[in-house]
Amino acid sequence: EQSFEYIKVSTPRTGVAMIELNRPKALNALFTPLIVELNKALESLDKDPSIGAMVLTGSEKAFAAGADIKEMAPKEFADAYGADFIENWSQLYNTIKKPIISAVNGHALGGGCELAMMCDILYCNAKANFGQPEIKLGVIPGAGGSQRLTRAIGKSRAMELILTGKNFSGQEAFDWGLAARVFETPEKCVEGALDTAETIAGYSKIAVKACKEVVNKSQDLGIREGVEFERRVFHGLFGSEDQKIGMKAFAEKQKAQWKHR
Ligand code: CAA
């Protein structure tokens, strides 16, 4: 059991881990100690065979109000470039193989918005407050915002938001396709994320892992290579017990009892 200062880790449902960002005094502003804890937790949950999916959330007030401006303010170019500042924030996207659903309530600004977008599925409350306000600080998004927001909602809208620093609501995030679902209250948002995570955790871990891998590949590959990649992974799954179990259960009108669950 690891103990953390800036996050809370729990297992509210069978097979489901929840990570809550917990730095209330700074509206969950993201600073190095918090990111280090988050990465540690993600890494161990990713390895934990009892966990099939994860939910990442904040408080009702803030998912995360961005990178810690006070921590960043004194940095020089050599500090930022030399230490590749913010690079380790992408561990969630770069190394975690299990699905992560972000449940966004309250502020999700700058790095907070970026962290939410790194997750595999984004859910939010209608009143959540998203934005990439970095322009107001004399900088630009630094943890993938310019790339992920643009892919999610299109160039013109993303350009407008990033150039003006204007915030947008959870309802807008849903209407524009950034969020998969929008909820009326913060509680419903978290419960909705847990429900979906529980559904995912009920499937074969091998198939779930492959689903995430192929969908993510679509972000990096052209359509021809992407479809080819998908087909190869699909072929590979015929070597898994769970393909046999799943298809046999269908034919016998039974519920599949997955080997890799
Ligand atoms: N960094 C450091 N501290 C922060 C913070 C941040 N990003 N956001 C909030 N806080 C702190 C405040 O300084 C304040 O601390 P004190 O009580 O010690 O003064 C505390 O959290 C509560 O905040 P407010 O009093 O400001 O709360 P509010 O309800 O009046 O306003 C808010 C909420 C609109 C979110 C406002 O706090 C705000 O604008 N925060 C900054 C948002 C921002 O610009 N984020 C982008 C950061 S840049 C970035 O993320 C770069 C990147 O791409 C990685």
Automatic annotation (TrEMBL):
UniProt keyword annotations, A-Z: Fatty acid metabolism, Lipid metabolism, Lyase, Virulence
Domain of life (superkingdom): Eukaryota
Annotated InterPro entries: ClpP/crotonase-like_dom_sf (IPR029045), Enoyl-CoA_hyd/isom_CS (IPR018376), Enoyl-CoA_hydra/iso (IPR001753), Enoyl-CoA_hydra_C (IPR014748)
UniProt cross-references to Pfam families, sorted A to Z: ECH_1 (PF00378)
Annotated Gene Ontology cellular component terms: mitochondrion
EC number: 4.2.1.17
One GO molecular-function entry: enoyl-CoA hydratase activity
Gene3D superfamilies membership: 2-enoyl-CoA Hydratase, Chain A, domain 1 (3.90.226.10), Lyase 2-enoyl-coa Hydratase, Chain A, domain 2 (1.10.12.10)
Annotated SUPFAM superfamilies: ClpP/crotonase (SSF52096)
Record-level GO BP terms: fatty acid beta-oxidation
Keyword presence, Nuclease: no
UniProt entry tagged with the keyword Lipid metabolism: yes
Family assignment from sequence similarity: Belongs to the enoyl-CoA hydratase/isomerase family.
Protein name: Probable enoyl-CoA hydratase, mitochondrial
Species for this entry: Neohortaea acidophila
